[in-house]
Amino acid sequence: MSNTLRIKKGVDIRLTGEPSLECGDAPQPKVVAIQPTDFPGLTPKLAVKEGAQVQAGDALFYDKTFTSVMFASPVSGTVKEVVRGAKRRILAVTVESDGAGTAKDFGPWGGGDRDALVAHMAAGGAFATMRQRPFDVLANPADTPRAIYVSGFDSAPLAADTGVVVEGRMDDLQFGIDALGVLAGEGGVHVGTRSGDNTLGALKGCTLTGFAGPHPAGNVGVQIHHTAPINKGEVLWTMGLQDVINLGSFLRTGQYNAARVVALGGSEMHDPRHVRTMAGAKLSDLGVSANEGARVISGSVLTGTNAGTEGYLGTFATQVVALPEGHDPKFLLTEGWLSPGLNKFSMSRAYPTWLMPKKKQYTLDTNQNGEDRAFVVSGQYEAVFPFDIFPVHLIKSIMVNDIDAMEKLGIYEVAPEDFALCEFVCTSKIPVQSIVRDGLDALKVELG
Amino acid sequence: MKMKAIHNLLQSVKPHFEEGGSLSRFWVVFDSLETFAFTPGHVTHSGAHIRDGIDLKRTMFLVIVAMIPCLLFGMWNIGHQYHLSLGASSDLIANVMVGAWKVIPLVVVSYGVGLGIEFLFAGMRGHSINEGYLVSGMLIPLIMPVDVPLWMVALAVAFAVVVAKEVFGGTGMNILNVALTARAFLFFAYPKQLSGEIWIHDVATSKSGGMLVDGYTGATALGHLAGTVGTAASEASAATMSMFAEGGMFSLSNCFLGLIPGSVGETSALACLIGAAILIWTGIGSWRIITSFLAGGLVMGFLFNLIGANAYMTISPIHQVVMGGFMFGMVFMATDPVSAAQTNKGKLWYGFFGGLFSIMIRVFNPAYPEGVMMAILFMNVMAPLIDHYVIEGNIKRREKRLTLAAA
């Protein structure tokens, strides 16, 4: 029987446009893009040239440091473009699908030792989605992590439903978990589940822990912190639920699988629902249609990237959200800071909406709702940050680049996504997530 | 649409204030007016795509709302005390008129001088105006004696804004509470003018004219106590103590309601508690600080009761905390998030010792009849140290976990 932990701090932001539980197959994407920028700390080296023919599972690029880790094409077709940004940094490699769906055959995994499994996964592109803590970056295949953590649910607003995600794929999931069991050290494999939801209850070969409470209870970092926190010098690996399923499928069939069940939601999204597609798919191809002028986000409203309908589904994204842009200035008495604010969502009780029932849904736009200021208010971050860490002091230590203080204050235990709600609630509109990313990068450089 | 017209007007003059425009040096003024009227159409560009509805303007505005009961009551009470001291009868309107006549100039000077300096520094540094002074500028008039000369207020405001805030980097960076620094400046720079007969409007003139009612000296409750009962028992102390008994000038109910002389906004414990309720209700003020501050004051008052070495110590704890500036300091000064402790546990210690020292200083040291000012400023300085120990505890826990894991 799994035990249950209650996360008290945090908040569920209920947005309008919740995706329905129906899930259909999206049309085959015509173009897909794998974006190195989805993987913090990755320095990509191209494995193909523009115009090359690839099969699904063929490497598009690999990592400069961990050269065995391949980043594979999810479709067969022609490499269309290598999109570069400033200093010729590779932003994306796009592949035009030929629609045939031919896949390179790596052969089913027939068992073997740990090193052989890592090599097999890395070659087939199935290791690329393995991330490590500390630093929240691509895992080093040479490490043996103390344990591997998988969050079995997503608590972000408008997130994909676990039941829909795993439907018909429990066998692949179990196979993936078994493989992680081979990779993990003495800590084994941990799966966090939504308490009261028994969808994943039948999984074997892992420790199941139930989590109750508001977002960010579904963040793997929170789940690690409340079971066995990371100490300095330790390495943990984490993998997304859908990536574990795809890993299982890869090991069973020998063919690379980048399938994704994606929740389409948000107030500006037409027909909010779940769809079955693949990582890297062009959003317009997979049937995303949103109102004119809306912001289309690949990923959650708290951590995703502004992709637009002509953009691509990020590697780790399991949802696409369309929100109204907030370009219009807000007059102080009607919508601004002196307004009654009956449609404003706030964690503070400065607007009367906190008296509304918790179930009330809000239509929020992308306006920053205020100007950038220095830290003034205290105690705000703590209310939505379920870690035994002082968030503001950690952020300040990062701002002054005090490596020693960052270590002491617990930077090894966190990822930018864990601070997403802090950024949301901040009165002074401080860009918390990018500060945390900078801190992790600085520390990684420092430690070599 | 009216708002559209305002928006268009602002946009039409905006080019003059932008880089290269003829009025570009007044950009700060324009920017603050524009953002005052319209929350800008800035959209999120990194991190979370949606943001909480709160901003610093709303936060500061709610603090000012919480001060309104103190302000209104203070105005009325100035007139009330004035008429009482003359033995004249009065009505609500007459009282408020006298109060408004005294308080409005204080508010105007405080905001005029303070915001003027803020604009100057913001212009020099090229950043927009922070909203911090909106609250400080209202707090300062409320902690001034009613007859304080306006030039002193201007000087105190200038000193506080420049020395307590701007030299540290502006709003959010200060160590000491800005409003209390203004008060402390006056207290130390003009001790003679700030003690004595400025707590009731025109009391000095009335006295020399022989119009004053018997028993009125123009001193505050704490002034009376510090002047007489701090030392050994005597006839004078017995006379003073009788003022604090039932039916006396400083009886418990008078102190609670605020029908006593004192700084403009501090006299009414009831008005302060209404403010506290607003601050806690909206979550803007820390309930941890407010409640622990109150607890600290009550504990010290109770301890003094137990010791009972002089008449001052025998005043009941409840009476102690409703006198003087204790409640006002507790609700509006100690809760300043920038100068207070920032960790939740630290806030409890900070508040508790703030309340404790407020009563202790007031009773032990007749030179500082108003202990709460010194106590909060002292705790402002101590707040980083308190936080340091709270955070050290967290760091120790982490290190212990590491050694356990390594073992």
> Biggest interface in this structure?
A-B, 78 and 61 residues
Overall mean confidence score, pLDDT of chain A: 92
Q: What is the general shape of chain B?
A: globular
Oligomer: heterodimer
* End-to-end C-alpha gap of chain B: 72 Å
Strand content of chain A: 15-25%
The order of strands across the largest sheet of chain A is 1-14-13-12-15-10-11
The domain tally of chain B reads 2
Helix content of chain A: 10-25%
How many angstroms does the end-to-end distance of chain A come to? 42 Å
Mean of the pLDDT scores of chain B?
Answer: 88
Rg calculated over all Cα atoms of chain B: 24 Å
Query: What is the string of helix and strand elements of chain A?
Result: EEEEEEEEEHEEEHHEEHEHEEEEEEHHHH
Report the β-strand fraction of chain B as a percent range: under 5%
Distinctive features:
heterodimer; A: 448 residues; alpha/beta; seven-stranded mixed β-sheet; six-stranded mixed β-sheet; 21 strands; globular; B: 407 residues; mainly alpha; 66% helix
Structure description:
The complex is a heterodimer of chains A (448) and B (407). Chain A is an alpha/beta fold and 448 residues long. Among the domains of chain A are: 3-25 and 102-253, no CATH class; 329-364, no CATH class; 368-447, no CATH class. Helices cover 20% and strands 21% of the residues of chain A. Chain A contains 9 helices and 21 strands. Chain A has a 7-stranded mixed β-sheet. A 6-stranded mixed β-sheet of chain A has the order 2-17-16-20-18-19, with helices on one face. In chain A, a hairpin with a 7-residue loop joins strand 16 and strand 17 (273-278). The mean pLDDT of chain A is 92. Chain B is mainly α and 407 residues long. Chain B folds into 2 domains: 56-220; 225-260 and 286-407, no CATH class. Chain B is globular and about 70 Å long. At the A-B interface, strand 21, helix 8 and helix 9 of A face helix 1, helix 2, strand 1, helix 3 and helix 18 of B.
